[in-house]
Amino acid sequence: MTSRVNKAVIPAAGLGTRFLPATKAMPKEMLPVVDKPAIQYVVEEAVNAGMTDILMITGRNKRSLEDHFDRVPFIEQTLEAKGDHEKLAAVRRPSELGDIHYLRQGDPKGLGHAVLRAKLHVGNEPFAVLLGDDLIDERDVLLKTMIEVQEKTGGSVIALIEVDPDQISAYGCADISAIDGEEYVRVSELVEKPAIDEAPSNLAVIGRYVLHPRVFDVLETTGPGRGGEIQLTDALQTLASAEGEGSGVYGVVFRGRRYDTGDKLSYIKAVVTLASEREDLGPDLQSWLKNFTNNLNG
After folding, report:
1. pTM as predicted
2. 277-291 pLDDT, tens per residue?
3. Where would I find the Nucleotidyl transferase domain in this sequence (predicted)?
4. 207 lies in a domain?
């Protein structure tokens, strides 16, 4: 299969319980990272990698996701009348990113189930899956590299990062082998959140996947795994040891800038890091941070 990857699936049905009470009435995907919601960074990443057909898998209380990527004529007219063209462009940008569709997950049966819900929309072609908890810096190429590996191998591709061994139990973990002459690796085993002493490596799976559509057939017969949910990791483990079209799982080890917005401390670090690198906010924020940390040390 040599189809170009032009569809992205973004699971966004989670409850965001780690950010309660902030997420009591606001989807976690809409939490602002400086002045854009986290979900917009993810959609922009997909679009920058060449995908303009986006499917979000949503749930109850996620209507604001749809509103954000829709036009708001009143606000646009107000900004245009003021001559505030910079803000007008920023408000219009989400609705101009691509063709965005929405589908309810229904039962919260896990990431594998959310991906399976995309089967009819995706069809028989490779596609990307992007999780909103991982923000990849736009200056670092990851998704395009993964798409190239998928086109070359015809299998499925996952993104990996090296973590401290004592942190691996918080992630899916991959056992890999090198491929002569290639920068990507072959994945032989995937384990969801292993005990530290049972982890096959310190390579953790992060929230970027480029998948062959064969994964849908596997997910349809994959029973509940860890946590009583249908795990995408389990389906990929099946594909890693399968034969024929769409078999094989490969990994791209990412060493660029990644911001984890999945927990409170990492979310705060992401906001501060991104704000400090901006031309409009960086100089003043960096100066304030220096004074602030000096006072803490004092």
Report:
1. 0.92
2. 999 999 999 999 999
3. 7-275
4. yes
How does DSSP assign 107-174, residue by residue? S---HHHHHHTTHHHH-SS-EEEE-TTEEEPTTS--HHHHHHHHHHHSSEEEEEEE--GGGGGGSEEE
In this predicted structure, the answer to whether residue 2 has a pLDDT above a threshold of 70 is: no
CATH of the domain at 210: 3.90.550.10
Supply the angle between the helices 73-82 and 85-96 in degrees, to the nearest 10: 150
Range of the domain at 134: 7-262
When divided into structural domains, the chain yields a total of 1
10's CB contacts (< 8 A; 6+ apart) are 39, 42, 43, 46, 54, 55, 56, 57, 129, 130, 131, 132
Please give the DSSP secondary-structure letter assigned to residue 66: H
Tell me how far apart the terminal alpha carbons of the chain are, to the nearest angstrom: 62
Taking 50 as the threshold, does the pLDDT of residue 1 lie above it? no
